[in-house]
Amino acid sequence: MAQLISDRRDVDFVLHEQFGLVDHDKFAEFNKKTVDLIVSEARNLAIKEILPTQKPGDEEGCVLENGVVKVPECFKRAWELYKEGEWLAMTDDPEVGGQGMPKMVGIAASEYLVGANSAFMLYSAMTHGAAKLVEAFGTEEQKALYMKKMFSGEWGGTMLLTEPEAGSDVGALTTSATLNDDGTYSITGSKIFISAGEHDLCENIIHPVLARIEGSPEGTKGISLFLVPKYLVNEDGSLGDFNNVVCTGIEEKMGIHGNATCTLSLGEKGKSIGTLLGEINKGMPEMFKMMNEARAFVGLQGFGVATASYMYSLDYARTRIQGRHMVKGREPGAKSVPIIQHPDVRRQLLNMKAMVDGMRSLLYLNGKCSDLMVTAESDEEREKYSDLVEVLTPIVKGYVTDKALEVCSHGIQIYGGYGYIKEFPVEQLMRDSRIFMIYEGTNGIQAMDLLGRKLSMKKGRSFGYFIEWMEKTIQESKSVEGIENITASVESAKEKFVSTAKILGDRARSADVMNAFSFAHPFLEVTGDVTMAWMLLWRAMVAAPKLVKKAGSLESSVVAEKAGKNKDVAFYAGQIRTAEFFINTLLPSALAKMDAIVAGDRAVEEMPEASFGSK
Amino acid sequence: MAQLISDRRDVDFVLHEQFGLVDHDKFAEFNKKTVDLIVSEARNLAIKEILPTQKPGDEEGCVLENGVVKVPECFKRAWELYKEGEWLAMTDDPEVGGQGMPKMVGIAASEYLVGANSAFMLYSAMTHGAAKLVEAFGTEEQKALYMKKMFSGEWGGTMLLTEPEAGSDVGALTTSATLNDDGTYSITGSKIFISAGEHDLCENIIHPVLARIEGSPEGTKGISLFLVPKYLVNEDGSLGDFNNVVCTGIEEKMGIHGNATCTLSLGEKGKSIGTLLGEINKGMPEMFKMMNEARAFVGLQGFGVATASYMYSLDYARTRIQGRHMVKGREPGAKSVPIIQHPDVRRQLLNMKAMVDGMRSLLYLNGKCSDLMVTAESDEEREKYSDLVEVLTPIVKGYVTDKALEVCSHGIQIYGGYGYIKEFPVEQLMRDSRIFMIYEGTNGIQAMDLLGRKLSMKKGRSFGYFIEWMEKTIQESKSVEGIENITASVESAKEKFVSTAKILGDRARSADVMNAFSFAHPFLEVTGDVTMAWMLLWRAMVAAPKLVKKAGSLESSVVAEKAGKNKDVAFYAGQIRTAEFFINTLLPSALAKMDAIVAGDRAVEEMPEASFGSK
C-alpha cells in the first residue's frame, strides 16, 4: 500500500510561489530552507509513525473499562514521538514552550499530520485549544501549574461544553459551580460528546468546563469557565487525588474511532474541584476567542482527509488497469488501460483536485492572515487581518468540511467496489470526514455565523476586506497571458456575489429574516465556491508566466507533449487546467444558486409543519 | 425509538392519485382495496419483523467459518416469514409460483421491505434475479429443477460476474468452462464481490456464472452463462453432493454488513459442475436482459434508505427541543423550540422531502411502465413502454443512488452529533447507501449508458417518448390554478434540456467523443434534476385543485391556518410547496450545469496525466 497524504510540490507552491513566507524579524529564523526542513520532518513523522496508526486506530477504537479509556495501543509511541518533536506547540510563543513558527508553516506541517490520522491529531488539537485558554485567561498560578505541560503534550486537554439538552444551544447548559471557602469551585453536572475526554495517552487531563455559578443569569450570559483537572495538581506540580471527573461512557461512532468521545460526569461520585478561568459569567466570550482556532482545525481535518483521499485515488487511477480507451480502444488489438484514461474518472479526479488545491490555498491564506496580524505595523493593519480571519473562518470550517465529504465520496467511487471495503484507505477517510460537518458548530451554525455576523460585522468593513483582496487578485490576473477568460468569469462571479451578499444581508436585517436565513447555507456554499474560484485563479495567475517560460508556449498540444517529461511544465499546466475546470464547469452552478437566493422562494419558511409528512 | 420507513399517505397518493392503478383484466384482482391491503401487509412485515433485524444485522454482520457463512441470526426468522408471505415473487407470473401483482404495486410494497433492511432484501433480490434468468433462458429441465424453489425463497440465487481483473470491464473475465462428456461443463475460476454469495438462509444456492468456454472469442462476445448450484440437484429435486463452490473470504465493508459479499472459488478444490443457461457465447446479452430489473432494485435500495432517513429526521426535528425561534425567540421569556422551526433544518428537510417524493414517483412510474408493457394493446405501445424503461433505468439507478447518499447525509446533519453515533438509525443508513452508487454498474457506467446508448437508441425515438411524456404533464399543468410559475419554469427547463441533449448527443457521435463523455455524469445529473422537476410538478398539478377544494383557497395564510387541523390540506399544500422549493431553488443550478455542458470546457480531456499531481 502506497503511503500517500499530500502533494509536496503543491505544498511548496502555495508556501513559496502563491503566497510567500512572511518576511519579518519575528519569523527571521523561518527562512525557506528551515521551512522546507520542517515540512519534510512533519511529512516523515506523518508517513513513518502516524500513518501506520490510522487503520489500527479505526479497528481497535477506544475501550472503556472501569472508568479508564484505553486508546489504540499504537497511538502511544506516535504520541511520544509527536511530543519529542515538540509539534503540539509549533506555532506558539517560545515563552510558553512553543517553537514560534508562522501559522501558515504550521498548517503546512499539520496537513501531513492530520492527513495521516485525523482522530489521533484531535488529541493534540483539544490539548492545544485548552492550553491556549490557560495562556489567554489563566492566572499566573494556573499558568505555572498547567500551561507548559499542556503545550508539551505531557498533559492532555479538552473542552467540556455540550450537554444532552445543550448542543448548538450552549446557553441551556445546567452544569453548576458552587464556590468553596478556599476560592475553588465544586463543579457538578454531566457533559457529552467530549472529544479526547478521557484517555491513557497522558498522565493528567485538564478540562476547561463551562458551568453556571449558582445565582448567575440564565442563558449564555451566566456561564463561566473553569479549569478542572482529572487529577488535582499539588503546588509543586506533582499529581494529587483523582478529581472525580468520571467517564461513564464512550460513543460508538461512524468514524474517528481512535479518538474517545466521552460522557463525563463531574461531582457525582465525589467532589470535582475547579478553579475559575478568566472572569465570572464571561465563559462564553472567552471560549469564543478560541473558536476561530478550533474551527480552523476542523477545516484542516476536512482538508487532511480530502487530500489523502485524492492522493490515494490518483495513485489507484494511474495503476488500476480496467477497460479500453474510448477512442484508441476501437483499434484492433487495443489493450486495457489505466482507469485515469477514462473521461468520468478524470472528471472526478479533477473535481477532487480543484477542491483539494483550493482548500489548501484557502487554509494557508487563513494561516497567513494570523501571521500578518502578528507582524502588522499598525492597529489598522492588525485589525484588517483579524477581520479577514473572522470572515474566512465559517468558510474554512463550513464549506471545506462540506466539500471534504464530497471529495472522500469521489475517492471511493474511483476505487469502485474496492472503495467500499476496509482493505483500502478511502473507506475510512469518508467515515472519518462525516463528523467534521458537525462538531465545533454544525455547518448550519457556520452558515448563520457568516450571514448573521460576519457579513455585517463592523458595518460590512470586514467583509469588504475579503472582497477587496479578491478584487486585487482579479486585477493582477488581467495582465496575465492565457487566463483572460477565467479572469473575466471570476470577475463577473465576484460582482454577482457582492450584489447577492448585499441583498441577502439587507434581508437578514429586515422583517424578512426567516426567509434570509433559509438561504444561509446556500449563501455559505456560493461564498465558498467564489472563494475557491479566487484561490484557483490566483494559482493560475502565478503558474501561467512560469509555464510560458518552461514550455515556451501555452498551446495545449505543446504543453501536453512537454508535460510528460518536465515536472514543472506538468505542474504549472495543471494549475491552469484545474482553474479552468472549476471556473468554466462548476462555478456557473454557483451563479445560478445566487439567482435563486436573490429570488428568495418562500417554501422553506411557509411550508406548514404538518405538510412535511406523517408516518 | 420510533419505527419509521415511509410516509403511507404519500405512497397512497402516488399509487391512486398521481398515477392510478393499471385498469386491465390481467390485473383485475388487484383493485384499490386489495392493493391497499398488500401495502399494509408489507408495511406490517417490514416494521414488525424486518426492521428489528436492521441494527443487529449491522452489528453482527456475516461470519465465515470453514467455508460456511453465517448470516445474522435474526435474519432467519425474517426470511421464513418473508417466504411464507410469498413476497419474493409477488410480481411474477402465477405459473412460476408468483402472485402476479403489478410491478408498481410490488415497488410500493418493496419500499417498506427495503427501507427496513436493504442488506436483508439483497438476498431476495439476488435470488429473484437469478430465478428470472432461469425463467427466461432455462431448459424445461433447468426450470423444473430450480425455478420454483428459487421464486419461493427456499433456495437462494446470486450472480457470479466480477473477477479481480474484471469489474466494470466484464469482458476481461478469465473463468473458464470445459465441456464434459455428459453435456455439463466444469467451471474453474475465482469470482469476487458476490452479494449473497454464500449463506445459511437457504439449503441450496443457485449461481448463474459468467464464464468463457475454451476456444470462445476474447472479450464480451465469448462469454456464456452457466447455472452452478452450491449442491448438485438430483433428478427428483433432492440435494446431491457439494459442488465445490467454495467461499474463500467475505469482505469487510462500510455498510450492508448483513449481506455476505463473498469471494468464491470454483473448480479448485474439486469439480464445479454447471449446465449451460441459454446459448453459447450469449451470456452477456442474456445477462443484460435482467439488468434493468437489477438496476431498478438498486435504485429502490437507494430510495429505501433515503425515505427511512427522511422519516427519522423529520420525527427527530419535530421532537428535539433546542434553541429559540429566530423571530419569536426575541420575546422575553421565549422558550426553546423543536428544531423543525429553525430555517436551516427546514431547508434540509425540504431538500430531503423533494428528493424522496420525486424518487418515489419516478420509481413507481418506472414500475408502471413495466405494467403497461404487459397490458399493451399493440406492439407499438409495448415497445414504447419498454423504451421508456430503457431510458429511465440509468436515472433510476444512477441519479437516485447519488441523491440517496445526499439525503442520508442530510439525515445525519439534522441529528447533529447524535447523527454520527450508532445509537440512532441514520448513521447506518448513510453507510449502507454508499454501495448503491457502485454496484450493478457504477454511476459512471450509468451516465455512459444514458449518453452513449439510451439517448441515441432507435435514432432518438426512445428518448423522444420520455420528453413527450414530460411535455404532456407540462401541458396539463398549464390549466391548473396556482402552479403557473413553476409550470413555466419546468417548461423552459425542459426546452433547455432537450437542446442540451441534442448538442451533447451529437458531440458523443462526433470525433469530440472524449469531450462529450467527460460530461456524461453532469448530463445524468441534469437529466435527473429535470425528471425530479417533472415528477414534482405532476404531484403539484394533482394536488392543487384538491387543495382549493379542501382549503377553499390557495392563499398561503389560509392554507397554513387550516393545515394544522386538516390532514388533506397539509398534505396537498406540501406537494405544492415542495415542488416550488425544488423548481425555484434547486433547478436553476441544473440549468447552469446545462450551459456548462454546452460550453464544453476541455480541461478534463486535455489535462496532462502528469499534471494531476505527484506524491
From TrEMBL, chains A, B:
<keyword id="KW-0560">Oxidoreductase</keyword>
<dbReference type="InterPro" id="IPR046373">
    <property type="entry name" value="Acyl-CoA_Oxase/DH_mid-dom_sf"/>
</dbReference>
<dbReference type="InterPro" id="IPR036250">
    <property type="entry name" value="AcylCo_DH-like_C"/>
</dbReference>
<dbReference type="GO" id="GO:0016627">
    <property type="term" value="F:oxidoreductase activity, acting on the CH-CH group of donors"/>
</dbReference>
<dbReference type="InterPro" id="IPR037069">
    <property type="entry name" value="AcylCoA_DH/ox_N_sf"/>
</dbReference>
<feature type="domain" description="Acyl-CoA dehydrogenase/oxidase N-terminal">
    <location>
        <begin position="37"/>
        <end position="154"/>
    </location>
</feature>
<dbReference type="InterPro" id="IPR009075">
    <property type="entry name" value="AcylCo_DH/oxidase_C"/>
</dbReference>
<keyword id="KW-0285">Flavoprotein</keyword>
<dbReference type="InterPro" id="IPR009100">
    <property type="entry name" value="AcylCoA_DH/oxidase_NM_dom_sf"/>
</dbReference>
<dbReference type="InterPro" id="IPR013786">
    <property type="entry name" value="AcylCoA_DH/ox_N"/>
</dbReference>
<comment type="subunit">
    <text>Homotetramer.</text>
</comment>
<dbReference type="Pfam" id="PF00441">
    <property type="entry name" value="Acyl-CoA_dh_1"/>
</dbReference>
<dbReference type="Pfam" id="PF02771">
    <property type="entry name" value="Acyl-CoA_dh_N"/>
</dbReference>
<dbReference type="InterPro" id="IPR006091">
    <property type="entry name" value="Acyl-CoA_Oxase/DH_mid-dom"/>
</dbReference>
<dbReference type="GO" id="GO:0005886">
    <property type="term" value="C:plasma membrane"/>
</dbReference>
<feature type="domain" description="Acetyl-CoA dehydrogenase-like C-terminal">
    <location>
        <begin position="466"/>
        <end position="608"/>
    </location>
</feature>
<keyword id="KW-0274">FAD</keyword>
<dbReference type="InterPro" id="IPR052166">
    <property type="entry name" value="Diverse_Acyl-CoA_DH"/>
</dbReference>
<feature type="domain" description="Acyl-CoA dehydrogenase/oxidase C-terminal">
    <location>
        <begin position="281"/>
        <end position="450"/>
    </location>
</feature>
<dbReference type="InterPro" id="IPR025878">
    <property type="entry name" value="Acyl-CoA_dh-like_C_dom"/>
</dbReference>
<feature type="domain" description="Acyl-CoA oxidase/dehydrogenase middle">
    <location>
        <begin position="159"/>
        <end position="266"/>
    </location>
</feature>
<dbReference type="GO" id="GO:0050660">
    <property type="term" value="F:flavin adenine dinucleotide binding"/>
</dbReference>
<protein>
    <recommendedName>
        <fullName>3-methylmercaptopropionyl-CoA dehydrogenase</fullName>
        <ecNumber>1.3.99.41</ecNumber>
    </recommendedName>
</protein>
<comment type="function">
    <text>Involved in the assimilation of dimethylsulphoniopropionate (DMSP), an important compound in the fixation of carbon in marine phytoplankton, by mediating the conversion of 3-(methylthio)propanoyl-CoA (MMPA-CoA) to 3-(methylthio)acryloyl-CoA (MTA-CoA).</text>
</comment>
<comment type="similarity">
    <text>Belongs to the acyl-CoA dehydrogenase family.</text>
</comment>
<dbReference type="Pfam" id="PF12806">
    <property type="entry name" value="Acyl-CoA_dh_C"/>
</dbReference>
<dbReference type="Pfam" id="PF02770">
    <property type="entry name" value="Acyl-CoA_dh_M"/>
</dbReference>
